[in-house]
Fold these 3 entries.
Entry 1:
Amino acid sequence: MKLFDEQTGYEITFRQVQLEEDLERLHHWHHQAHVIPFWKQNFPLPVYKAHLQKLLADRHQTLYIGHVNGEPMSYWECYWAKDDIIANYYEADNGDQGIHLLFGPEKFLGKGLSLPLLRAMTAFGFRHEETSKIVAEPDIRNEKMIHIFEKCGFEAQKEVDLPDKRGLLMFCERTTFLRRWKDVNFIQQQNV
């Protein structure tokens, strides 16, 4: 999917992860100092490859690489909440989707890209008519990302003890999102 965000002037593209094309990139990104504390997937390459193969085979989620103006810079896991561990922490509806994300290259940090990308991926999730809620559970220590989720339209529900972290369960309702961003036009240029 390729979108042009009129508000920021960014061309934002999401494409599905391909094992051979993205393995080394994602392995490298998961070894970045700003990623390790929150993802804890800084495995040796053979272990990371097996991990990525398992993720790609998991039918309840789809993995994406996010690009800004043609440059790969973010990783996204989009999943159906009902089939995810998060469904143990709230009453998930069949259409609920969830997202995880990271920015890989350090040069993209602090550039004001988090909100436009999260907004675009959230809009992308709401393209499914049955989805009325997008969920997230950022690490409770990641105050910057929690702030970005809130700016996008996510609302804190409760803290949850997940197997790999203490997270803040957050919901973004379709009506809240559309009301907040009614003046933002995403121009879909083409499917990628």
Entry 2:
Amino acid sequence: MAQPTQWQFTVRLPRDFQSKALRQLMMADWYLPKHLVFSLKRGERVLVNGQYLPVNFDVHPGDQITLTFLASDFEHPYPNVIPDSAATVKVLYEDTNLLVVNKTQGSKTHPNQPGEVGTTLNHVAAYLAAKNQQPYVINRLDQETSGALLIAKNPAVVPVLVRLIKEKLIQRTYLAWIHGQLNQPQGVIAMPIGRNLADKRKRQVDGDHPQMAITHYKVVEHLPNATLVAVQLQTGRTHQIRVHFANLGHPIVGDPLYANDPRQQRLLLHSWRLRVPLPFSFNHITLTAGLPETFNQFESRHFK
């Protein structure tokens, strides 16, 4: 498969656009990092209405902006992911720049070793191979966590999406069944999370090299011995939702690391809703990922 050597984006500014410097549009509205703006400027690869325009000049409603990125603009322009079967790929959204899939429970997000296959990213690589495109991982979900997973389809949108996540402009809502009853209808958990020195697989509150972690939750439903919560993360620490609720004495049902449940009970944590501002655009999408069968089975057992 021949690798693409450049990626071009053409956008017409909307009628309600407020005139501003081209540099401000690229950095403040489209979240391009400074080094990419410099590369576009130096190579005269940013055009306004078909002509190069210095980035300190203003652009106006109705102007057509064309950006052309080269492989040399990026440290890693091509991901090294081996295509695997595309049979399990469930697409929630796709355009020319990004893909959102409903990750299956039990599938790792991405390979950790050279030559590794069988992960979600390997499956997506097979799905995209027919389109001469490749997947770029943006965020990850734990292996046993299902749901909406965001994947880029070219290197130009990777730094944009990463920055949108960092600045909390991509909103992710999770659903989780936790053990016990939460009396407060909503709340905020603010506890630092670090490594668990006794078990390298685990994290813990106030563990080794802790970093502040903030989790927002809202109660959705009660069962006699369990509570369904909708969760949004203000920070993105490893195992954050799992550690925070376990520390409160309400571990997620089926958590193999933090709950004392039978092995056959799967983790009931799902990336449910995703709101994403679209790169090089002024629009956004909101997507909902259907719940896995494990959620339905859990509820049906309690309502028999």
Entry 3:
Amino acid sequence: MREVEDTASSRGASEVSEISSEVALFGKYEIGKLLGCGAFAKVYHARNVDTGQSVAIKAVSKKKVYKGGFMAHVKREIAIMHRLRHPNIVKLIEVLATKTKIYFVMEFAKGGELFTRVSRGRFSEDLSRRYFQQLISAVRFCHSRGVYHRDLKPENLLLDENWNLKITDFGLSAVTDQIQPDGLLHTLCGTPAYVAPEILAKKGYDGAKIDVWSCGIVLYVLHAGYLPFNDPNVMAMYRRIYKGEFRFPKWTSPDLRRFISRLLDTNPESRITVDEIFNDSWFKKGYKETKFHADDFELKGYSTGTQSATNCLNAFDIISFSTGFDLSGLFNEADFSVRREQFVSEERPERIILRIEEEFRRIENVKARRRKERGVYLEGQDSNFILTVNVHQLTESLVVVEIRRREVNVGLTGDIWEDKLRPKLFDIIYEPETMNVSE
């Protein structure tokens, strides 16, 4: 978050008061001071009332998310953060929601922003290397999971109580399924002083390579104490970035000059890669490899076998169907005439759709229209009842059936589905004693 409030202003107090009553409903978190704020979110320090653990809670306004067109950003940020488990990445603990807000409950980084620390004075070469090693370790992990941050800078790098680095703010991140047929990303994003020259060229870019460029800017800032490309005139700064015009401070060692020059190579084809970074002599000095276990970062309850990604739910879909992560309806205008329900089944998707269609026809005359491969739109007589069914593959043997229904005649609300249709489907609804795929 960009703007940190230094004093307990009346506005800050009212904001805390505004969400305290909502959080009390969760019976879980005690809200503390406001840590910072952005365009549509505010971050608070909070305490888990049961464990005493400090957490950071990012409160996102649903109204601002919708009006600002940030629905996809918030969805993607949740999905990305929940799939990334690394010692140098801020951990998403859970997501909670009320009628007005979405809450990201995250690991609390007690040391604050790396930007604050480096603004007090440049780091030694050894300390710069230590933080760069932690940064690249986390970036390599992100890339291995198909995630490209696209906005790496000291303001988005936090420090924990042991002064270890933690990457945060994945709101501008991209995932591999956003790559276009030419194999590149095309969305223009990032912070001006950290943006790679190929983004300025507007011809598409490799997400991994622009992250490497940004890491090069971060390393330069840590070591020098100022930006390599900086000018009050943004267009003049962009011209310098595009040409790669910068100077090293006099205290920069020959090895570090060589290394940063490879990071800030304006040609993405010859720019050093993450794998090559790990083999560089300057980088390797004192580096200790981070060891992982699969359980540290896999989404519990989510199969990562050989199933086709097109047939199975992605990370956000899994989250949206799990306890504590049901974000349905948070990213669209409220329509209280539409009701939503899910159930799990072991039946084949085609069989489920046919069965619902058959049972509906027995109740009244219906108009049916297939929706893509695993969905159906059903409209009752005189359009008094509309039912849409979509089936999502959860695992090889289980599917999630999503039902959305709308009844025009308010007096009949719930009767057709609850009293007439759903009871007929009892044999295809799978109801285990517990089903919770969240952590």
